[in-house]
């Protein structure tokens, strides 16, 4: 039976004796019986403060919504926001903390902000002489590596270190890589899982999928998200405001039947598509009928989401009316470059050139990440 990092806290309890503990978490921070890590630490150690990532400590805030600090009545603790004015914990909100813990479900993708909340917190822990503890949990996308290494000219909170889109490490292993390879050098302890096979299907562990954010409601959506997140940098709806976010892609100017026929002609492994018409209740094209495709994951072992996503993107960008979104502020990089980690997609670089670079970058990263594998 799989034991998550938090399931093994009793074996590491001496680490916490006589220490004031802070915790970065959200509703996915639970043990195998779905008890919140915050409640477990409140009972077993001297938990003195909580820290909230994007989407908040309760996971009820939409993407990009700034989170304010507040007092949690149930736990009787202050919750400090790490997704507002300051994404790195300040010395003030870390005052009195001896150990800062991290327990949240990751999705295994470079553009997911939780891993940079962790990285910034590790940097702050180093600066403030605080031990940093990661309770490890599975990467739903497994060990596979796919995509280009981030060009640091396009560094942001959706891509801070030079890793590929799909990096094939658990969050604990990734913390180890961040700490050594990118020279954070904090006092890091990873509490590993027991009986974890990174090559196994997540579903074999009989763990319920707890949405790490509001728009990843199923494990299938996490896989397809790797292929469709890039539409956040365009005027195409990625399905926010529907019951199938990231699995529905469309816009008022797209011909759904034409797009579906062209995507089917790609013969992409591991997915099926159908034409779809939907009306988002919020976000892009709110209240307008969008036309596009619905993506169904049929075999995750055969699906190459990043490559497949780029191939579909190359079709969608040909429709009249398609646009890349402008940068949030003058002089900033456009969102598409931040999400793709470079300018090749925006510039229309041929896919064969992009994929050749993928192969080089993937091989480079595979060699690097081997040093940090805790599970084989």
Automatic annotation (TrEMBL):
Residue ranges annotated for the Peptidoglycan beta-N-acetylmuramidase NamZ C-terminal domain, each copy included: 223-375
Gene3D superfamilies documented for this protein: 3.90.1150.140, Uncharacterised protein PF07075, DUF1343 (3.40.50.12170)
Peptidoglycan beta-N-acetylmuramidase NamZ N-terminal domain residues: 21-219
Gene Ontology MF, one: peptidoglycan beta-N-acetylmuramidase activity
Entry-linked Pfam families: NamZ_C, NamZ_N
UniProt protein name: Uncharacterized protein conserved in bacteria
Organism expressing this protein natively: Acholeplasma hippikon
């Amino acid at each position: 039976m799989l034991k998550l990092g938090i399931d093994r806290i009793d074996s590491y309890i001496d680490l916490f004796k006589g220490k004031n503990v802070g915790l970065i978490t959200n509703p996915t921070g639970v043990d195998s019986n779905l008890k919140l890590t915050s409640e477990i630490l409140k009972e077993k150690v001297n938990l003195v403060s909580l820290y909230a990532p994007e989407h908040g400590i309760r996971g009820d805030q939409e993407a990009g919504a700034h989170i304010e600090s507040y007092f949690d009545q149930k736990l009787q603790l202050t919750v400090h926001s790490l997704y507002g004015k300051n994404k790195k914990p300040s010395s003030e909100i870390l005052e009195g903390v001896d150990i800062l813990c991290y327990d949240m479900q990751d999705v295994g993708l470079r553009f997911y902000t939780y891993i940079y909340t962790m990285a910034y917190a590790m940097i702050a822990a180093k600066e403030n002489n605080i031990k940093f503890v990661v309770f490890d949990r599975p990467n739903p996308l497994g060990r596979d590596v796919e995509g280009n290494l981030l060009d640091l000219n396009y560094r942001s909170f959706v891509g801070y270190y030079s890793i590929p889109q799909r990096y094939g490490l658990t969050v604990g292993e990734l913390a180890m890589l961040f700490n050594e390879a990118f020279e954070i050098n904090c006092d890091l302890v990873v509490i590993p899982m027991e009986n974890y096979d990174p090559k196994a299907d997540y579903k074999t562990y009989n763990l319920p999928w707890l949405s790490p954010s509001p728009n990843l409601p199923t494990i299938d959506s996490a896989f397809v998200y790797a292929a469709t997140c890039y539409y956040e940098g365009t005027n195409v709806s990625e399905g926010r405001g529907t019951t199938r976010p990231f699995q529905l892609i469309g816009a008022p100017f797209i011909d759904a039947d034409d797009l579906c026929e062209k995507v089917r002609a790609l013969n992409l492994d591991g997915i099926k598509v159908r034409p779809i018409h939907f009306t988002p209740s919020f976000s892009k094209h709110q209240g307008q009928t969008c036309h596009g495709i619905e993506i169904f994951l049929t075999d995750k072992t055969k699906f190459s989401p990043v490559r497949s996503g780029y191939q579909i993107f190359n079709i969608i960008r040909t429709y009249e009316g398609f646009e890349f979104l402008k940068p949030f502020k003058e002089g900033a990089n456009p969102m598409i470059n931040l999400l793709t980690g470079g300018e090749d997609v925006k510039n229309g670089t041929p896919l064969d050139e992009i994929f050749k670079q993928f192969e080089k970058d993937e091989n480079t990263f595979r060699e690097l990440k081997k040093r940090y594998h805790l599970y084989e």
